[in-house]
């Protein structure tokens, strides 16, 4: 399971130091674009499951087919190097608006990588929802 959150900075080459607690599960990893505008790091078995979900979209609406196209076109291997760094391709960084400060969050079966400012807003929205405050509270 992937749990927790961390804040990190991308280096000049667009690499992220993956938190140590995630590295063992992501010795081999695939990075993809993901719903809500973040990136996702998947272990191979979970990527296979997510791929089946996305493949099913090929039989759906034009919007669903476009989601599947973008998902598969951008997917790349992104295994950590010996220092635990993961290279995030420029097109995926652009998709997720990643420049310097990023939030790395556990999402049970994968890791999400967010622009830190966008993550703070998503987190506030989620916290309001959990406390029953609604999106406008």
Write structural notes for this entry.
It is a single chain. The chain is of the alpha+beta class and 137 residues long. Helices cover 37% and strands 25% of the residues. The chain is built from 5 helices and 8 strands, in the order ββαββααββαββα. The protein has helices spanning 20-23, 44-56, 62-74, 90-95, 116-130, and strands at residues 5-9, 15-17, 30-34, 38-42, 76-77, 85-87, 101-106, 111-115. A 6-stranded antiparallel β-sheet has the order 1-7-8-4-3-5. Strands 2-6 form a two-stranded antiparallel ribbon.
In brief:
The chain has five helices and eight strands; from the N terminus they run ββαββααββαββα. By secondary structure, it is of the alpha+beta class.
Identify the overall geometry. Answer: globular
Estimate the strand proportion: 15-25%
Task: Please tell me the overall pLDDT.
Answer: 95
What assembly state would you assign to the polypeptide chains in this entry?
A: single chain
Rg, nearest Å:
15 Å
User: So how many helices?
Assistant: 5
What kind of sheet is the major sheet? 6 strands, antiparallel
Helical content (DSSP H or I, runs of 4+):
25-40%
User: What's the N-to-C terminus distance?
Assistant: 31 Å
Which spans of ≥5 residues are poorly predicted at pLDDT below 50? none
Q: How many β-strands, per DSSP?
A: 8
- The assigned structural class equals alpha+beta
How do the SSEs run, as a string of H and E? Answer: EEHEEHHEEHEEH
Strand order of the largest sheet: 1-7-8-4-3-5
